[in-house]
């Protein structure tokens, strides 16, 4: 993964496929974009990773809103509750928490090393990246620190 992220080549296929989720209204839209990208034949790893990244961006924005009026622990609970309500059609609270963890790993990684690095990922899926533990993500991040 580090080799791909540091490579000089990139792909531009993601932009056209994910334009429809660039300004989503809610977590349901973002979740549906992830599902669509994962199920769509021909979706690139970049498209799926970008869908996760955008979900993560929305999570961070919403958490920041909650933190303005609540302590962090309560803000986290409120965020999970909101996501659970919006995605209640097929996910348990535990499944929502796992999905949020997966999203956060991808979002944190690419926010830290650069969103542009998503375009360089070729052989690693969003699921494979999300299965990295936080220490492994830290090792990748360290390779990009100046």
UniProtKB/TrEMBL annotation:
It comes from the Eukaryota. This is 8700_t:CDS:1.
């Amino acid at each position: 993964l580090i080799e791909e992220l540091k490579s000089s080549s990139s792909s531009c296929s993601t932009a056209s496929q994910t334009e429809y989720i660039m300004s989503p209204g809610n977590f349901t839209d973002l979740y549906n974009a992830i599902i669509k990208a994962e199920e769509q034949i021909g979706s690139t790893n970049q498209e799926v990773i970008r869908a996760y990244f955008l979900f993560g961006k929305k999570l961070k924005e919403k958490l920041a809103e909650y933190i303005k009026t609540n302590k962090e622990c309560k803000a986290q609970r409120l965020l999970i509750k909101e996501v659970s309500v919006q995605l209640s059609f097929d996910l348990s609270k535990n499944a929502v928490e796992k999905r949020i963890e997966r999203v956060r790993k991808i979002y944190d990684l690419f926010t830290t090393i650069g969103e542009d690095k998503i375009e360089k990922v070729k052989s690693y899926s969003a699921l494979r990246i999300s299965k990295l533990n936080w220490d492994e993500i830290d090792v990748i991040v360290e390779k990009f620190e100046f």
